[in-house]
Design a protein that fits this description.
About 15% of the residues lie in helices and about 20% in strands. It contains five helices and twelve strands. The protein is an alpha+beta fold. The radius of gyration is 19 Å and the shape is globular. The chain starts with 16 loop residues before the first strand and ends with a strand.
């Protein structure tokens, strides 16, 4: 009575998350919020059953190696030469696990295509955050309908969903050239990851050359440059890239 009291409030944005048991739910179900489940991805489309991994992968983050023929030969069955056409490409899983052209095989199993290869090896985050906000290092098994599911390198079209749902972006990706700036809220995007304990320290330069699985031509793929108030959508050399996020169809 008449004492001092401290109340800590833990406020979470109501993004939808994919949990390791295959369920989709709000943050209150996560261990970090006092629930019982472990989140592995944030849902960007329920109709497409598409989610983006909470763990950014910063190794092997280019479309291809820098040496020939990998950096100078077409690998996908389709090229897209404008932002408008590339934004319709929803085939990230196919470009990752389907047979490539020109004898490259499945890129997820070919280390000369590093970003695809890293997706092929990835299973789940190596930790979760508990209700005391402590990191618990553990192997996180994927169960129920997630058994056998694979992560893939997102296509440009799949990234448009992340842009709108997580970045509050409203611009149309409709340029008939090979580049376009589209407005978004970077901090809102990153909050989807931070509130689950990921990307707590990030630097803009780490994500200013995110590779997508969408090919522009024999030497270039489509990439994203993240900035505070906009994304730069552009084609760039395949051997160029920094961190990226794996996608999953659940």
């Amino acid at each position: 009575m008449n004492g001092q009291y401290r109340v800590d409030l833990f406020l979470l944005y109501n993004f939808l998350y994919l949990y390791s048991d295959g369920s989709v739910g709000y943050p209150k179900e996560a261990k970090v919020a006092g629930g019982s489940k472990i989140p592995i991805a944030v849902v960007i489309s329920q109709s497409q059953r598409l989610a983006i991994g909470l763990k950014a992968l910063n190794r092997g983050c280019t479309f291809s190696e820098s040496r020939s023929p990998y950096s100078s030969t077409e690998a996908n069955h389709t090229d897209y030469t404008t932002v408008a056409s590339a934004a319709t490409d929803m085939n990230g899983y196919e470009w990752t696990y389907g047979n490539s052209i020109n004898g490259f095989g499945v890129k997820a199993y070919n280390s000369n295509f590093p970003a695809f290869f890293e997706c092929g090896k990835y299973t789940a985050p190596s930790y979760y955050i508990d209700e005391n906000k402590n990191a618990v290092n553990t192997t996180i098994p994927l169960t129920n309908n997630l058994v056998g599911k694979k992560w893939h390198l997102g296509s440009l079209g799949e990234w448009t969903y992340a842009y709108r749902v997580l970045g509050q972006g409203t611009d149309s990706w409709n340029s008939t050239t090979d580049s376009q700036n589209v407005a978004w809220d970077a901090q809102f995007f990153y909050s989807a990851f931070r509130q689950m304990g990921f990307l707590n320290s990030y630097y803009t330069y780490t994500y200013n050359a995110i590779p997508t699985s969408t090919e522009y031509d024999f030497m270039h793929n489509w990439q994203l440059g993240f900035y505070e108030d906009h994304i730069e959508v552009r084609s760039h050399f395949k051997e160029w890239g920094y961190g990226f996020f794996p996608f999953i169809r659940y």
